[in-house]
Design brief:
Layout (H helix, E strand, L loop, with lengths): L2 H8 L5 H11 L3 H4 L3 H4 L6 H12 L16 H22 L2 H14 L1 E5 L2 H16 L3 E5 L2 H9 L6 E5 L6 H12 L3 E6 L5 H5 L2 E4 L13 H19 L2 H19 L3
Parallel strand pairs: 1-2, 1-3, 3-4, 4-5
């Protein structure tokens, strides 16, 4: 079924704002749609960037996202969809995240070499990866995913501490509570979220945006985890590049120990 036919068939089920968008496309001159975003003079460098910005302006809370996977899909099709979805989300995140903001966050982390990761669920798992990466280059790094432990850790926050708050929705209550406590003690807050108007974004000194449409709770949720970990890796690479020769030599020694003790020769 074509996109336009799908729009027509689902029109009565759409929300008012969605109907406005559907009306535009159903009545659009497709010759003009093929023109560049610069020709439209909307101030965006790509149509993808425009769509993402529009969705954020309409509402920061995530709506229900229709699943792209079907139980009757051919296995090869399901695999292709997984790769396609991941690539699309990373490309969209690259289009919206501020490279200057990543650089600023990295510079702050490099300055104090202390970083804590707050997140629940999948975001908490991403924080655990961040802990390993930054510990590898000698930073004081710790991932906290238990709500009680998060509040206790935040209570001991100091101005030299960097808190990376990971939340796809940006509205995870335990993370918000812990960030508020840490912020009141002068900690520097870096938010990684999908929504620029979310509470986490509003509390952060630096906001690093992802662009991953997904359900708020889903058993197969992984879109935001891929984007979050890519942003964290960018921070890690920038920090590692500034670590100096001595740190590099210690990292090489650690890698040699890992090879000797944990890998089959």
């Amino acid at each position: 079924m074509s996109v336009l036919k799908q729009m027509n068939s689902l029109y009565n089920e759409l929300k008012p704002v969605q109907r406005i968008i559907a009306d535009y496309f159903l009545a659009a001159d497709f010759e003009s749609l093929n023109s560049s975003i610069e020709d439209k003079r909307l101030g965006y460098d790509s149509f993808q960037h425009f769509k993402i910005s529009l969705s954020r302006d309409l509402k920061y809370e995530p709506d229900t996202v229709l699943p792209i996977f079907n139980m009757d899909d051919d296995p090869k099709l399901s695999i292709r969809k997984v790769f396609s979805e991941a690539i699309s989300n990373l490309q969209a995140t690259e289009a919206v995240v501020s490279f200057d903001a990543i650089k600023r966050a990295a510079e702050r982390i490099i300055e104090t070499k202390i970083v804590y990761f707050f997140g629940l669920g999948g975001s908490g798992k991403v924080g655990s990866i961040g802990e390993v990466w930054f510990s590898h280059i000698g930073y004081t790094a710790r991932a906290v995913s238990d709500p009680y432990e998060m509040i206790v850790t935040a209570g001991h926050a100091q101005p030299a501490h960097n808190i990376i708050a990971l939340s796809h929705s940006g509205s995870t209550v335990p993370v918000i509570d812990a960030v508020n406590i840490a912020k009141s003690s002068g900690a520097f807050i870096i938010g990684i979220t999908n929504y620029s108007k979310s509470p986490i974004a509003q509390l952060s000194e630096v906001v690093l945006l992802t662009a991953c449409p997904e359900r708020r709770v889903h058993f197969a949720r992984s879109n935001s985890m891929v984007a979050q970990s890519t942003i964290l890796r960018s921070l890690y690479i920038l920090a590692a590049a500034r670590s100096g020769k001595g740190v590099g030599e210690r990292v090489d020694d650690i890698e040699a120990s890992v090879n000797a003790r944990l890998r089959i020769k």
